[in-house]
Amino acid sequence: MASILDQYEEESNRGAVRRPNQLVGDMASSIYFIRYIIGPGFVDARLETELPIFNKKKVTFKPPDSITHFVVSNNFLIMAMSSNILLRLDLEHPDQPDEVELPKSVVDKVYKIFLDPTGRHLIISMTSQENFYISRNWKKPKPIVKMKGHLIECVGWNWQNANNNTTSAILLGTNKGFIFETELSASCEDNKFFQGNFDQYLKQMFTLKGKVTGLEFDRMPSQDMNMYKYYILATTPGRIYQFIGQVSSSADPPMFSNLFQQYESVPSNVRFIELPGELDYSELHLFFPQFRQQASKFAWMTGAGVYLGEICLKGSAGPNSILSNAKLLSYKKDQDDSSTKPLSMVLTEFHILILYPKSVKAISVLSEDLVYDDIYPEVSHEKLLGICKDSLKGTIWTYTCDTVYKYTVTKEDRDVWQMYLDQNEYELAKEYCKNNPMHMDKVLTKQANYLFAAGKHQEGAAMFALTQNSFEEIALKLMKLPQKEALKTFVQKKLEALKPQEKTQLTMLVIWMIELFLNQLGELKEQVQDGTVEYENTQEEFRKFLHQAKIKECVSHNRSVVYDLIASHGDVEDLVFFAILMKDFERVIGHHIQHEHYIGALETLTKQTDLELYYKFSPLLMQYIPKETVEAWIKQGKQLDPKKLIPALVQYDHQRFREQGNEAIRYLEFCVQKLDNKDLAIHNYLLSLYAKLQPDNLMTYLELQGEDPLSICYDVKYALRLCAEFDHKKACVHIFSLMGLYEEAVDTALAVDVELAKQQANKPEEEDRDMRKKLWLRIARHVVEEEKDIKRAMEFLHDCDHLKIEDILPFFPDFVTIDHFKDAIISSLQEYNHHIDSLKKEMEEATQSAEEIRKEIQSFRNKYAYVKAEDKCSSCAYPLMTRAFYLFPCSHKFHMDCLISEVLPSLPPSTRSQVESLQRKLAEGETTTVQKLGGIGHLKDMDVKSKLDEFVASECTLCGDFMIRCVDKLFVEEDEWASIAADWE
């Protein structure tokens, strides 16, 4: 049996050798080149002929006996021999074949064998009406006692079963038309236990007319979680039955009892299709796209042909049917074997393989054509016995009594796209050629031509754009149409298909697309339809097109071309839109200004972020819409530089000067008050506008600026010249006062108000008595000479303490009588008398004080004190008598040098230098005169010593004023702190 393994591995290796060439062929079929301006075309450059879909290989081995039956599932192969021996082989482990001996009888033979989809459960039906079950791991078959006396014609396996130890609920069909439900378990091999529990139950469900040749069932979608919905297909040689019903998820076995009961009780509910024929047998097969998925197709081999259709579980076939789109395929027989009947068949996704005694024919389920005819010349002396398919692995096997053949299926769907295309099923065709650009192009081209011929030009154009047809050919074809929507769609789709690096093609198509939109809008305008919904929709579509990121990037590099193109159509509205889209706000603003649409220009200006445009266009906008312009400036706040806006502030129309000026003042006030701007130019211009337009606010501004020359923000001299030019005397008075020109301030104030002049006269410092007196005299003279108000002049004597009656008398005219200032003279004389009396009193007090001082000095000359030999210096604590010393009345005693060292650091630098000089003179013992030191004349030694005493010994350092003056002196000087801290560490 090793020959099977050898053959299997040989074929696998051969397939592996061919695979690289096959891949080369696939890739070569996808090669394309750039043709014309737009769009690649495909070149069919296959390097070798593709392998056929069905490739047959003969398995070269010699079976020990004739093969009577052959089944395979999930790579598990079982052959029944004429000697009643089962040969089992796991194709994944072919070196471990297994033989199972069936119970021997002289006349008993295997009738049929049935292998479940997983390859784990096998049912054997014998001609003696004995039936056996064998699990994959068993060595001996076990009889199905309850089925004794029945020939099993077919088995309906449970495709949803996931338990390897049991078949779950299955259906058995017999030659007498009975349908049974049973469940076979392989969980125990104990004979005693097995006999009682192997076939757990057996229940007859239904009876058909004629033998049951096929059984299939599967679960259907259900919204009820507690109920399952099933369909069951059963066939006899001439009929196919459908049973549909619900099964409770918690129902006890048998699970299909209630489902069949509804048909038993009401026989009219039984649905079937009858196809009479000459065959007394038939086969039923389902196709599952993947294991445990729902079946998608069914095929029933009858005498009339193969009845083929789809399994529809969504209800489109009706409430009591799942078979839809069914058709009958006739057998493709040769002329010389017209009497040959089909033996068996298998169903693949797109083909039906029908077995004849000498050949295998494959019919396409789509085109119904014979696509493969495999004649077996080597079996001329015998015939083919059967064909089967591994439902999980997809391999197909045929066999004779002594030979086995294996079919491999290669790219079964390779031509499906063409079949669907021939049937005008374009969507299905595209589904099966997604991996082949050349095939896809053919499908798209045919679909586009179909749509175009049907009058669906726009849909056809969109489809043409996806093909690789000549761009020029399609474009010219679409340009002949009266409506340009199809052409626009075509160009739009081509644009979407371009790659970012194809910049030349992209630019050309974008410009053409813009031209198409502009032409369409222009035609609508010519037809006076520019206010219609069609025009608005077209314009909106055009603007959305320009807004696309790829389009926007393209036109930004070619904006001059687009500008010229839009301008050539006279489409001002879209020209403005495009400029805004390109953020070319300068052009937009210039356009608005050119058409005197200043509000629109300002709106565009405020929507952009380039501040330079504010400085460029504000001068013009300020002339026509000053209020709105200033509002826009204020909204920008600190982002704008007010100095750069001065040209806009000074540009004005004389007829509207006041309005523009007032708005300029409003903005400058905002800068000064809200933004706290300190620029000299801003404040000077604001001051000039106040002087020209709002003199009432001029003094308010000057007062807010204050009188500190360091804090004011305007040029004082410029302000004085400006106020003098416009004759704002109060402002001039304020500025004169600010500049310290009090005389000019008083003179100017006298021309306005005497009270204002009096305020200015009080501004000089208190110490500057002469200036104050001078200013008050100016005011008094003005009052006397100009206003002739003697009484008011006399009042100045009370307002100013520096004026006397004699100061203002010279200003009085000669005719003035003494009665006008009699009271002032009397008051002045009385004041003089009081002053003389106070001076006399002070002189007496001074004389008395001097006498007391002389007495005290005389008493000090006679005062003495005792110094003991053990007395010590209050500073150094050494004996006092060792050197010259000072003795104070408070009894503190100091050495001369100790006292000098205590006092010297606290003396002023000039006095300190004098003390040091006197010390040097005393040390040198000079008897000559000493040059003058700080007002000191020629002195003798005693004078030197007396002067030194005056500096250092005027008071005791411990209890005199010296100690009080040193109370805030640091114990450790700052320059000594570092060294002291280091000593402590």
Automatic annotation (TrEMBL):
GO cellular component, one term: late endosome membrane
GO biological process, one term: organelle fusion
CHCR repeat feature ranges: 637-792
Segments forming a coiled coil: 829-870
Main localization (coarse): membrane
Domain Pep3/Vps18 beta-propeller per the UniProt entry, residue ranges: 52-409
Location of this chain's protein in the cell: Late endosome membrane
Molecular function in Gene Ontology: protein-macromolecule adaptor activity; zinc ion binding
Domain Pep3/Vps18 RING C-terminal: start-end pairs: 869-965
PROSITE patterns in the cross-refs: CHCR
InterPro entries per the UniProt record, alphabetical: Clathrin_H-chain/VPS_repeat (IPR000547), Pep3/Vps18_beta-prop (IPR007810), Pep3/Vps18_RING_C (IPR058919)
Annotated keywords: Coiled coil, Membrane, Metal-binding, Zinc, Zinc-finger
Membrane topology note: Peripheral membrane protein
Pfam families the record matches: Pep3_Vps18, VPS18_RING_C
Similarity comment: Belongs to the VPS18 family.
Identification of the protein by name: Vacuolar protein sorting-associated protein 18 homolog
Source organism (scientific name): Lymnaea stagnalis (Great pond snail)
